[in-house]
Amino acid sequence: MKKISIVVPTYNEEENVKPLSEAIINELSINCNTYDYELIFIDNNSRDNTRSIIRHLCNENPKIKAIFNTKNFGQANSPFYGILSSTGDCTILICADFQDPIDMIHQFVQEWEQGYKIVIGRKTTSKENKVMYTFRSLYYKLLNKFSDFEQIEHFTGFGLYDASFVQTLRELKDPTPFLRGIVAELGPERKEIAYTQQQRRAGKTKNNFFRLYDLAMLSFTSYTTIGLRAATFIGFIFSILSLFVAFLYLVLKLINWYTFPMGQAPILIGVFVFGSLQLFFIGLIGEYIIAMNKRLMNRPLVVEEERINF
């Protein structure tokens, strides 16, 4: 009997974990009843009752498993580690907040049985904040334009991954993995299924500006070199422009020595423009250095505090 692994990352999801586990098990028992399964919750050091609820679920059902991290290792590392810890013939990653439709599990499995090694859900519409969805769309288009590989727009990681691809992920040894980019770069032929992302069932989103920025920079520094090359090109262009303006000012001053005022405004504007550009590109180069430093330190994806039912 083939085995399906379901991986659910959690962080302060006390209102969602029990209903989610019931919904997933119900979906599997109705539409995937010819398969064995394991349901893995990987918790990022929740501060509410999430862990106690997961423990209770594990005690009631030995097929429900848990990994408790010692701290919050971020929304990229923890789900990735959960996938690596799965033992099924295929692994499905799904969010704990009910934004990913549970009834798509059956569709994923059907496409997998047709031969696809990767089957992903791709948002075509979303019931989240429209402004945020618009910003996400612009970001994906920008990333796609400058990425070394064609990225998958509005893909959150929600999908099915064959055991052979999971083994590929294990062999990467990447301390800062970006699953969405890895799927686009290294994944075999995939099947994309469109869906509408629902609103969060309960609780508050854990994403804030800094977490989203961190994830955006991870993808940007992992799959683009445009930032570094832009610094070179823009620096060269502005150098030529500066020489031209300086020469023009010199000629005008020589022709109209007494009537042509040099003025302080152009000098101040030039200083501010060059200063702003320097700070921007120093910061961008710093992001690349941070990404390199994390990979060179080669720290573990997560540090486990406890495992249950493994």
Structure, described:
- Keywords: Glycosyltransferase, Membrane, Transferase, Transmembrane, Transmembrane helix.
- Residues 5-157 form the Glycosyltransferase 2-like domain.
- It is a multi-pass membrane protein.
- The protein has helices spanning 17-31, 50-60, 74-84, 104-113, 130-146, 163-172, 179-186, 209-223, 226-255, 265-297; strands spanning 3-10, 36-43, 64-69, 90-93, 118-126, 159-162, 190-197, 304-308.
- Helix 2 links the parallel strand 2 and strand 3.
- Strands 7-5-6-4-1-2-3-8 form an 8-stranded mixed beta sheet, with helices on both faces.
- The longest helix is centred in the C-terminal third of the chain and has 33 residues, at 265-297.
- By secondary structure, it is an alpha/beta fold.
- The protein has 2 domains: 3-205 and 301-308, Spore Coat Polysaccharide Biosynthesis Protein SpsA, Chain A (Alpha-Beta Complex); 226-297.
- The protein is built from 10 helices and 8 strands.
Compact description:
With about 300 residues, the protein is α/β, with parallel strands linked by helices. It is about 50% helix and about 15% strand.
Structural category: alpha/beta
Low-pLDDT stretches are none
User: Span between N and C termini?
Assistant: 19 Å
> Helix fraction?
40-55%
How many individual β-strands?
8
* Global outline: elongated
* CATH H-level superfamily of the largest domain: Spore Coat Polysaccharide Biosynthesis Protein SpsA, Chain A
Number of domains: 2
The helix-strand sequence is EHEHEHEHEHEHHEHHHE
Q: Give a short account of the largest sheet.
A: 8 strands, mixed
CATH top-level class of the largest domain: Alpha Beta
**Strand order in the largest sheet:** 7-5-6-4-1-2-3-8
Q: What portion of residues belong to β-strands?
A: 15-25%
What radius of gyration results from the CA coordinates? 25 Å
Mean pLDDT: 84
Subcellular location: Membrane
Transmembrane segments: 233-255, 267-290
Membrane topology: Multi-pass membrane protein
Domain Glycosyltransferase 2-like: 5-157
